[in-house]
Amino acid sequence: MPIALALLGVALLIVGLLLYPRRAENPAPLSTKLDVFSTCPLYSIGYGVDPVPGHPGVSRLTVQLSLPEGLLPGSGACRGGAGAGVTVTPPPGTTLLTGTTFLNCQACHGHWTVGLSFPPNGLVAAHFLVKASSFGVVSNGITTSAAIPEIVNDATGTPELLVAYHIPSAISYDWSADPPVSIRKSIVIWSEPVAQHQTAGRAAIGIDQAAQASDSFKIFLAGVLIALAGAAILAAIVEAVHTRDWDVIRALHPKEPPATAQRPALGKGSPGDLPDSAPR
Length: 280
Known about the structure:
Distance between the termini: 70 Å
Structural class: alpha+beta
Low-confidence stretches: 100-107
Strand order of the largest sheet: 5-7-3-2-11-13-12
Order of helices and strands: HEEEEEEEEEEEEEEEH
Mean pLDDT: 76
Radius of gyration: 42 Å
């Protein structure tokens, strides 16, 4: 009996430990610093990160600048010419990849600077390849954090910052703490105004409430199983101690053989010694 209880307790303990969810901490992602220069007033600054199809572990960072509708590059509203520039300072340890399509940053040393020129449609973009499967996004399965970059605005006007990330199952997250302007399957877009000079970076946080509820139930169930395991193991120990005590008691007090009843002997001359035929 004690062995069976001990085995049951160990089995419940193992199941409880296996069932208990283990998720890594979800630190806030490090923000990228984006310095933007433009001779013309900007309407928007776009910052987007998405995976490169067919290249696992590689993300594409796109910085896009746009002019207000109807503003022609090089017109009187511009400060001469139609030039612009972007300097991206990524978090430490970020690796930039160069290729035939995205070769627009030569000899980068801690930051990537690209000179741009507005075409007639007033829309220009710079692309960077980053060696990272999810650049700017950190997730542990319940909480997902997306880095909103720090912006240094050296252009005139107050452009709008549009930040877009590719986040798997983004629609299943609760983004109420940092509401995006758009969620389309796995694409999340945030929008916020950019102040003159500098706007601090931050992290937008989403919570998968279904996964959170599932983890809470697993934690409760694991706790019940671990408690039952402890009770079973304790009962096995108590039972084993009691069994040993009884063995000791039996060893100290051996059983005595039962006494056999003997017929008392009759003395000489007693009536029992007389033959049946003897006169009485």
